[in-house]
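User: My instructor asked us to take a sequence, write out its structure as tokens, and then describe one feature of it. I'm not sure where to start. Here is the sequence I was given:
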Amino acid sequence: MSVHQPGRRASPKALPAASILLAHLLPLTLPWSGVTGRDWLACGLLCLVIIFAVGGGLHRYFAHRAFKTSRAFQLFLGILAACFFGDPVGFAGKHRLHHRHADTDKDVHSPRQGVWYCWIGHLLEERHTDEELLAAASDLTRYPELVWLHRYYYVPGALVAGGMFMLGGYSLLVTGYVLSWCLMAIHAPALVNYFCHRGQNRRFETPDDSTNNAVVGLLLFGEGWHNNHHRYPGSARAGLEWYEVDLLYCMLKALSWLGLVWDLREAPRARALRLLRETP
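Assistant: Let's start with the prediction itself. The structure tokens for your sequence are:
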């Protein structure tokens, strides 16, 4: 896929600069507006929800189809992600293009293009047209409900934000929703985009700059085992060694025990390591 060319219709998914600015400014007002323990609890819980919604839902399921699920639970994962981060079709298309052009001049958020662009700048402009994103995620566009979420991606988040304001006023809205969104939808992915493409811990010689980062792996429940992921992008498990803690995989495994997901794909190396450890 080619990057956006002048005269072609750009994707509407680029974030307005005002949204990012407000997400950083509004939490600074909390010392004057007041904040309760319930507000902080909501913030912490939503941070955990967003990690799963993005890592387990958008990333491992929608972008890489690392496991199977029902259409109903697929829609649940899509709505959950849209409440706090983005729509499945748009994310999957953009992320697949990232893998296709990782750390080249066509990559949508490579550190090679500078810290600012990797961290924030890529959010302010969409290099790919909507048509390119839809083509890259064509397997998802056969679901009308996911196409609806792609078109009206702002609706679930607006409903959640409005509901939190009605339940707890300004402090719950800003602490629970805005702050968690700022941390987990802006800065958490940036940790992966930057530090997991700038390190030296490379188990596999992949054609990109991907690297494993233990700190990011622990903070984001396994998403920091990024060199492993770029070697085996379709694996539901990113942590291949026992010490590479992958809580997202544990969550998906638990969901498989409940019958909500199944056929979790696993990297051949992970299977081999497990069999080796089980051999007497």
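For the description part of your assignment, you could build on this observation: The radius of gyration is 19 Å. Try explaining in your own words what that tells you about the chain.
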